[in-house]
Design goal:
globular, 5 strands, Rossmann fold, five-stranded parallel β-sheet, 12 helices, single chain, alpha/beta, 12% strand, 2 domains
Amino acid sequence: MMKKNLPLLFFSFIILNIFCWLSITALSCEKHAKHKHFNHKAVIKELLNLTGVVCNEEAGDITSCTKQWMRPENKERWEIRDAENESILKNKDRIITLLNELKIYDAIDAKNSQYDYGVVLGANANAMRIRLAHLAKQIDQGVEIKQVVFLVSQRPRFENIETEEMLFDENNLYLPLKKGWVKPKKTPATETEIAKFLFEQSDLPEKLQSLPVIFVDTPGKGGLPATVKRASTSDTVIAWMKSNPKSGTILAISNPPYIGYQHAVLKKYLNPGFECETIGAPKVDPDKISIRVVLDSIAKNIENDPSFLS
């Protein structure tokens, strides 16, 4: 009797396994779909409300509302404080929770193993050290690039945060100094000079040191001297594109919370034929960076790529 039922039992076993596999696959797909279609717009609307920005969508779109998060043009990031916004102080914990949902604080490594360009985006000296260190890490992990490009500018050195002591610091937290490096007699005076200085000063992987390097020395914005109005990320990308570089794949190096914003700028201003991936590290401690700085970055992300809200 048992032998007669064996085919039926075997068939039932197969059907049961197929049913379980389909159920697991459906659940997996559902999770993937939920992740893929994460509702940025809902998060941004709540953030606007929590930060005291009144946004009537009938009168103006959310993109216009988020522009209120942008820092004043005459202010650098380190000059803006959360204490100037009572709503941010009151709702800080919930705001940070939402920003974590947007993964704005997260570090990102390269997805691929080969790129035509490793593009280091300009910043203050320590931020460029952080970015150069992350590029070095990718090289050490087997990523290959053909050329290094620094998108930098002629803006004067920020004497209050880019001090001689910091520039010449043998014990800085970001990049060890090259053995035998000799301190130059002249302190770098511009962002471009600082980038060259850091590349020459730092103990980098041999593969990275041996690559061709170009520095896109971008002048001031709108034809003005850099001492009056410094170039932005978009200006440096445009300046590079004007030199007609050969199209190819780009590994751009930023650092959180600026990765999304700078990726959006690159996508917007790169010539046709370029493919770009933007990464950065380290993961940010939310308590160690101004929420207003993070919101400024998100607003610029949305301004350059409105599809962020879709």
